[in-house]
Amino acid sequence: MINNVAARRYAKALFAIGKEKGGAELDTYGKDLAALGEVMEGAPELVRVFKNPIFSVEEKKAVLGKILDAVSASPMVRNFCALLADKGRLAVLTDIMAVFSTLLDAEKGVVRGELVTAIELGDAKQKAVKAQLEKQAGRQLELDFSVDSAILGGVMLKVGDNVMDASLRAQLNILKETIKRGE
Q1: Residue 19's closest CA among 142, 95, 108?
Q2: Residue 112: which region, alpha, beta or left (left: phi > 0; alpha: psi -120 to 50)?
Q3: pTM for the predicted model, two decimal places
Q4: Which of 6, 20, 62, 133 is most solvent-facing, going by the fewest CB within 10 Å?
C-alpha cells in the first residue's frame, strides 16, 4: 500500500511537469519510461538490485545510468530516476511506470484492453475489428489480441474491469443454466 501511494505521487509529479512543458515532452517521458520498463521486464534481476539494500545508492545509480544511456532517455527522466535513487524509491520504479502510463492514456483518451478469440485473427481482421470497436466506443483503443480455444467461438473483450463475453462458451453456459432452472 505504501509503495502504491509513493508510486502514484512520483508518477503524478513527473506527469505534472511534463504536462506543464507540453504534450510533446509528456510523450517523451512516457516513451522513455516505457523503454526503461521493457529493459527491466527483460532483466528481472535489475529490479532485485534496485530493491536490495546491500547495493549503495551510487552503485544503483551507475547501473541505472547505463540503462538510461542504452534507451537514450531525456534529461528530465534521468534526473527523475536519480531522484528516485537518492530517495531510496527505485524499488517502486515499475509501479511508477504503470501509474504514469495510466495517466498518459487518460490524458490522450486511450483505452487499453484485450480481445480474446477462439482462433488466431490475421492482421487485416485485427485492424477491422479494432476499427469497429473504436467506432462503437468513440475512443482510441489499444488492444492486445490473444487466443483461447476454450471459448469455442465468438469473442471476449476485456477493458479495465469490464468484460464483455460474447463467446460460444458463455452462451452455452447461459443455455445450460436456463435448462437447469426449467424455464
Answers
A1: 108
A2: beta
A3: 0.71
A4: 20
Does the pLDDT at position 4 exceed 50? yes
pLDDT digit string, tens, across residues 27-51: 999 999 999 988 888 888 888 888 8
Give the whole-angstrom CA distance, residue 67 versus residue 16. 24
Q: Residue 4 in contact with residue 95, Cβ under 8 Å? A: yes
Nearest to residue 35, comparing CAs of 61, 80, 73?
A: 73
Distance CA 43, CA 53 (A): 19
Give the confidence band of 1 by pLDDT, cuts at 50, 70, 90: very low
Identity of residue 17: I
C-alpha cell at position 130: 479494432
Cβ burial of 69 (10 Å; 0-12, 13-18, 19+) is exposed
Q: What is the dihedral sign for C-alpha 77, 79, 85, 89?
A: negative
- How far is 19 from 183, CA to CA, in rounded Å? 57
